[in-house]
Design brief:
By secondary structure, the chain is an alpha+beta fold. It has seven domains: 223 residues, Phosphatidylinositol 3-kinase Catalytic Subunit, Chain A, domain 1 (Ubiquitin-like (UB roll)), CATH 3.10.20.90; 82 residues, no CATH class; 51 residues; 159 residues, Nucleotidyltransferase, domain 5 (2-Layer Sandwich); 60 residues, no CATH class; 78 residues, no CATH class; 59 residues, no CATH class. It is built from 25 helices and 30 strands. A seven-stranded mixed sheet has the order 18-19-22-21-20-23-24, with helices on both faces. The chain has a five-stranded mixed sheet with strand order 4-1-7-5-6. Strands 13-17-16-15-14 form a five-stranded antiparallel sheet. Strand 23, helix 14 and strand 24 form a beta-alpha-beta unit. The chain starts with 7 loop residues before the first strand and ends with a strand. Keywords: Metal-binding, Zinc, Zinc-finger.
Length: 900
Amino acid sequence: MHMAKGKLILICQSGGEFLTKDDNTLSYEGGEANAVNINHETMFDNLKLKLAEVSNLDQKTISVKYFLPGNRRNLITLRNDKDLKRMIDFHENSVTADIFVDGKVGFDHDAVKVHTSGDGGLKLAETVDHISGDATLVAANNLKNLADTILDSSSPSLTYSASPASSEHDDFEYKPRLSINVNNADQSPADTVKKRRRTASWAIGTHGPTIVAVSDTNNNNNDGNTRRRKKNTPRRSSLSIADDTLSDSDGLPEKLLVTWRDCISGVGQDFSSVKEFREVLQKYAIAHRFAYKLKKNDSNRASGVCVDEGCSWSIHASWVPAAHSFRIKKFNNSHTCGGESWKNAHPARKLLVSVIKDKLRDSPHHKPKEIAKSISRDFGIELKYTQVRRGIEGAREQLQGSYKDSYNSLPCLCEKLVEANPGSLIKLLTDDDKRFQSLFVSFVSCIQSFQNGCRPILFLDSTSLRSKYQESLLTATAVDADDGFFPIAFGIVDAENDASWRWFLDQLKSAMSLSSPLTFVSDMDKGLKEHVDQIFENVHHGYSMYHLIESFKRNLRGPFHGDGRGVLPGKFLAAAHAVRLSAFKKLTEQIKQISPNAYDWLDRIEPEHWTRLSFKGEQYNYIVQNVAEQYIKLMDEIRESTITQKVEAVVHMMSEVMNSRRARSSEWTTTLAPSKAKRVEEEGAKSCGLRVFISSDVLFEVHDDATHVVDIEKRECTCLEWKGSGIPCRHAIAALNCSGRSVYDFCSRYFTVESYRLTYSSSVVNAIVTSSGKDDDDDDDDGDESGEVKVYPPKEQKRKKEEKVKTEDPDKRTVTCSRCKEPGHNKASCKATLGFELNPLIHRHHLAARLSLKTPPPPPSLLPSATTRRVSILIDHAAHLLVGLSFSKNPSNPTIAYLI
């Protein structure tokens, strides 16, 4: 039996001791056991605290251990979240697992009060004494303890209900949704937990629908201990402890329903307005599960009846001028419809938005289907996808402001960013219709830091802004001394195309003052080389290795030979890093032998834009990470935010990068940045044992597997590894050590801690602008009279269906047809037409049929030269199948003579 949905029931044993059996396996004797339900979201600290509580142990001294499945000899210790998740994975095919808890006796109850991190997927609460009769409502803050219950293995055969936690709710006619039955003391804790499932049902009474528990006593007249569920019980009302995992906010629907059940008390109740009366009535109907309609509905009166024809339920309220209130005048709270009206219930949009808003506040990335399922479970309301989607839009608009209206806040945001960061270049561009077109943001602190502390390399990339208007985020990113990505500038454009990229590069040039050649790196498929060359002078352009490797993988097509497809990306990268032409040719020749198609694709890319051997700019191709990854993750996290919030989030990220790295570098004590210092250490270790011969003060001869000449003045070695890398090779380090010089003095200044600190010496100041939150009707105003700059969102574009790129397993062998020599199929399934097929056993009947229709065979020009002899044989076979025909069997001139 497989563990359901990643959940596991832990049998927590404590107070006993381990005994070793004759076969060296361990057994646990004595103590007590409790059952706990966990899943992959359970945090170890939460589990540890709960285990200490139920076992009455000091949580600071507690230790938790378990056995691997099938191994009772070695105990595994749980120390952190990683260990806990690993244990769950080990028991993925199990329903239960034994854990053993030990520690100092005495639980610190104050720790529970200060532990506010939430349950983290842990379902646990204390058992309570048996209460005879109906249980009253548990206080809101104890609802979780009502639902999550621990059963002890020594418990007698009793039915437990929740004890009252507060007397202030005694007037509620509420029945517990859950009861727990323990059949007998012989059952294991796991068996007990498995049975903890009861279903709530709805009963129609004089006060409307009420919740009642389905008790096991209903089945006492059955033979044995068999329990049956009522067939008419709605499945969505069921509640499972062992199978369901509730979040920390799952108590909220319970609290709402309890509050809504009594929100209408009867005749004489006053409301401030008809609007408030409608809202309260809607909640009351949901809590009591019926649907109504308003026959009279205006500012002075409102009359409602049950939607089920013939039902006696009705309510009437009207405005009382003397009391300045909206008062209930008539109220018949008796339903005769049997609850059938609930099938037609449709909540008001405002109420739906309110409920969804609470859910989004706790988890902003809830999907419509998840919310619809949650509302159905919590309130019993079945909603259409479009209803939920519109409700989500309304809820997000209330939480974050209108996405559409947020464009109007862009001018104000730009102005505040310039005020907070004087000297920065921030430009906002709109079209003739005042629709957003593009935004460019470059802070002066970032530009100065780049020019003072970073290598002259800029990566150009883009990602989606994740909005319904399909804007794109364009970025320019540098690399710091520790090979970390440093944001320089970003732009938002309505569409990514040649024009938007040219505009972005124009603004980038305006923000920078170039004194040395600059190297740009971009995705080859974007075609930015031409734009860069036209806008910037004295620059080099390289293709991003990350995008080249990904494109190389996508374009791999069989057939593959030798080592197969899996080694091709590695050989491609090795060819890019080759420092000698002979090594480059050797690697590309190996690629050609494995896959001629891969070699042809590689041959079409100019090597001066991606190989270390031919590239003239700053070396960059050792960077194989996705530069845009940090932006992609950020946009995914805030995909539902408005455009101003997204701009603020990017600025905040830039500010955090500078602040956090500045603080981190203040603790460094080395000369080089950590990644570069590590590389020097590795090269230094390889230099041990090399023989060095001094030719002059600057020239050295170093003997390795081969003899190399090191020129420390030019910072070159004949191994070619030092040139362009900025880090001395092993031969250079051996020569420097021999001459008593410091290796760090011959490293590139761009790799020093000093350069790193210069890069992050300044700061970016963020500015927060709240959305105006105006109604959509205000968009029609011109806005010029008040002096306010209006910015409208870009026109919505039809989403293009992205072509799904079929990603193939690099280790998968590609089948090649032995007939047509094409990959992807074999000879048996080949459908290719290869001229004239010459299998006499199959095709002589076909030729005979053609001859009987007086259709000549194919001319010799269509026949393969190697098969002309078989043509004669084939015609001879066909001749025996026909009568009254004679043939000329000359294979070079097959003819047909018809007898008259």
